Amino acid sequence: MTDKTILKQAPKIGKEQIDLLRRLSEASGVSGDEGAVRKIVLEEVRKITDQVRIDPMGSVIVTRKGRGENNLKVLAAAHMDEVGLMVTADDGDGLFQFRVVGGIDVRYLPGKPVWVGADRIPGVIGARAIHLTTADERKHAIPLNTLRIDVGTGDAGKKVKPGDRAVFAVNFLELSESLRGKAMDDRIGVTNLIQLLKHAPDNIDLVAAFTVQEEVGLRGAEAAAYAENPDIAFALDCTPCNDLPTSDGSENTRYNARAGAGAVLYTMDRGTISDPRLVKHIKHIGDTYGIKYQVRQAGSGATDAAAMHKQRAGIPSVSISVPGRNMHSTMTLVRREDWESTLNLVYAVMATLSRDVLKRD
Amino acid sequence: MNDVNNFLKEMVSAPGLSGYESPVRKIIEAHWKPLVDEMQVSKVGSLEGLKKGSGKGKRKRILLAGHMDAIGLIATRVVNGFIYFTQIGGVDPRVLPGQPVLVHGKEELQGVVIQPPDFLIAGHSAGSPVPMEHLVIDTGLSPDKVVDLVRPGDIISFAQPPFELSGDTLAGHTLDDRAAVACITICLQELQRRVHKWDVWAVATVQEETAYLGAYTSGFGLDPDLTIAIDVTHAKGPGTSESDIAALGKGLVLGWGPNIHPKWYQTFQDVADELEIPYQKDVMPGHSGTDGYALQIVMGSRPNMVISIPLRYMHTPVELVSMKDIKRVGRLMAEVIARLDEDYLETLNWEGNND
């Protein structure tokens, strides 16, 4: 299939997809406690197929075979978990100590509402009133060990216990050019993977892995890739746009990715050198079909691909991400056009995969 | 009185920065309309509602002031679609990264404050707070749209929705001082079924955070005989260490200090004791930092009282108050007002002991 009809078959983004992203974004799913997200994923994938299993760590693995024999077995992973908080101690009077789970910059914590535990008990992380601070104090970030989750003066404090997870309380918002919500990393990847399953191309056997614990060491993907032993693996994720101005007006040489510049193809990050044959194929497809894409700057960060490419005798792997601003914070902004480009690219790449792609020069 | 809870949530969902109070004023106006006999907007924009007393002839007047203005931000420049800003009122930049805001440009735009990566700020040490001048707001719009819609000088308000916590407590931005407007509203509601001889001027003041402007000007324009400033005070909680601050939900707070007339104070303490309304005393050794600072001095000076609502995390978007304390303030003011005789002022002399 090399004609442009391929894009007509690609999944589209409409109200249904945005509503799904909204539900996923607002759900609580801190690494190791992905249950609420898993529930939504299971609901959705069971509408598509009964080839669904939950592995011992909690990842959801869905298989959708193509037509014919000897298809490439392609695993696509999107992680269900998000960075967040864990309650560590009860100070009494509705006040709780906590620690971060995954890479949250503690400078994002003060002055934010949170949902605590499975019952989503509302709380806030306050900060000392500016009137009570000194100029010298304000030169330093507020230390995590002085912050508390405050659930109010009533009985709610009795329902919160050490070990409970908490997430930023953020409602999803549709803006004219963008979508805004918490945990877009990687609920947008989860949404994309569900769309891909719904519109799975027939040339491959697709294994969709909705993984756990990506934010604490890419652990769910490691297990899933080992168990499934695919020919090729893709990580579908969300990557930061650090495309902000510099303070001195010099060129921003470390933007990572740019909002509005399309799907993000990884060639190298801290954990993976993407398989060059897959990179070549993806570029070719992007160029051939006129799908807007950008190549991520090589640098820090890693995706599930880092864990997957090392499994068994090695699995050719690559990542394709949706670019997002303000990641690992309260809320991330994703441009609608970038989401669309990413979904188009992922679909077109999958629909054109063949064993030829893996041939060595 | 659940309606007051909803009214307060409605108020803290509305913008109304110092100098730009119209959005919240309209909400207060609608809620006060059935509770007062007359209403007017002062030259500087304060909302003044009059509930007439039952006395004959020229009645004495009491003024209740709670400020409706909010602290917030104001755009300074737009670069590549990112909006740089500074503050209106006292904002600790350390609470800003990740905050939702509303940018009042040609259109109202939802935005979020983004903390740039440390390496984009020359000379900045990683992990330390990013100064306000380097924080930006992203509206999710492409740069050409932002240039078209936003200009330096456009105001930016906090957009964190109100959040109800356990124990009848409410979190949100601008509870300083819209909680006081809720107190005044409860007082007006109580007075609907009480006889009071004095005229009551309920005032939602403007620009307290910047200049006590509404208090100075309504204090002049309405020429009251007695004044009460209602504001918030620091409640005990994480990050506080002072011993003289109030406990959240454990009672209203009566201010004591030079901005307060000692005998006028005594009346509140006596009535609270009589009715067993729990209260705490807040010593204000100098400037009370409230509209009372202005109300006391206008028109050749007036006896002033400061009543406070305990509040945690002041000037953050998650300020926390107890609805119980708010109701206590409203009720105590109504009870005091109902007890004011025509010759009450004569008891406010400077003879005898204070306190």
Shape of chain B: globular
- Percent of sequence in beta strands of chain B: 25-35%
- Major beta sheet of chain A, specifics? 8 strands, mixed
State mean pLDDT of chain A (0 to 100 scale): 96
- Chain pair forming the biggest interface: A-B, 65 and 65 residues
What distinguishing features does this structure have?
heterodimer, A: about 350 residues, alpha+beta, eight-stranded mixed sheet, six-stranded antiparallel β-barrel, 9 helices, about 25% strand, B: about 350 residues, eleven-stranded mixed sheet, six-stranded antiparallel sheet, 10 helices, 17 strands, about 25% helix
Notes on the protein architecture:
The complex is a heterodimer of chains A (361) and B (355). By secondary structure, chain A is of the alpha+beta class. Chain A is 26% helix and 25% strand. Chain A has an eight-stranded mixed sheet with strand order 1-2-12-3-13-16-14-15, sandwiched between helices. In chain A, strands 4-5-8-7-6-9 form a six-stranded antiparallel β-barrel. Chain A has a three-stranded antiparallel sheet with strand order 10-11-17. In chain A, a hairpin with a 4-residue loop joins β6 and β7. In chain A, α2 packs across α5 and α5 crosses α9. The two termini of chain A are 22 Å apart. The model of chain A has no long low-confidence stretch (mean pLDDT 96). Chain B is of the alpha+beta class and 355 residues long. Helix content of chain B is 27%, strand content 27%. Chain B has ten helices and 17 strands. In chain B, α7 packs across α9. The longest helix of chain B has 17 residues. Chain B is globular, with a radius of gyration of 21 Å. The mean pLDDT of chain B is 95.
